[in-house]
Fold LIV-I protein F.
Amino acid sequence: MLKIENLTVGYSASVPVLHDVSISIGAGQFISVVGPNGAGKTTLFKAISGTLTPSSGRLSFEGEDISSLEPSRRPHLGIAHVPEGRQVFPSMTVLENLEMGAVPKAGRDEWATNLERIYTWFPVLKERAGQYAGTLSGGQQQMLAIGRGLASSPKLIMLDEPSMGLAPSIADFVFEKLMEIRRDLGLAILLVEQRVAEALQFADRGYVLETGRIVLEGDGDTLMADDRIRQAYLGM
Ligand code: ATP
């Protein structure tokens, strides 16, 4: 579905942040990218959603080369990006934030069904539909950001550190919901996370990104059992 081949990208052409990164995501797969602060996880998402242009390498989605496709066109292909730090619109209501996600045609066509589903996964969003998003707790804002992404009817949803700044019990709730959403919709998930155990536990495949390079990859269970991961990330 999404194929990233030998991607090199950065904020200026002379200083790449990601070097020769290759990642592949099949339809319905759950892929995790883990790594420390500053490894380049957010940069990877910016390249996929098109706000950064690769200096070399190729990005394709469902067989189509999207390396130079306008960022604003990418959600229309079925790629949703739930950004780091949620970035909900604080002075818009919960419902208006969800509507902002439903810009692609598929999202508009399926709006009523999507809204009902989003409210079933996250009933608190229904209860607070008329409330300004800025007044929600961090966990509720994260649910809203995920809901906004789902409102576009994506085939692939990319989540940038959804657990960031959340109490462990709320982060666990968010991970459980992601699994439920994936079961219900069969959509592909690309997750970047610093919470390595949670991210790898359920992943079909995981990648470890360190200083802009993939240093390890494998299925989730294999990575969880890898001595390097256990020592560096799981404190064992
Ligand atoms: P974190 O978990 O802290 O968000 P990350 O793995 O997502 O880390 P990135 O945010 O992708 O890492 O940052 C990777 C590198 O790119 C870092 O060295 C960072 O300083 C640099 N960087 C990030 N944003 C910019 C920017 N706007 N301009 C220049 N360099 C940047």
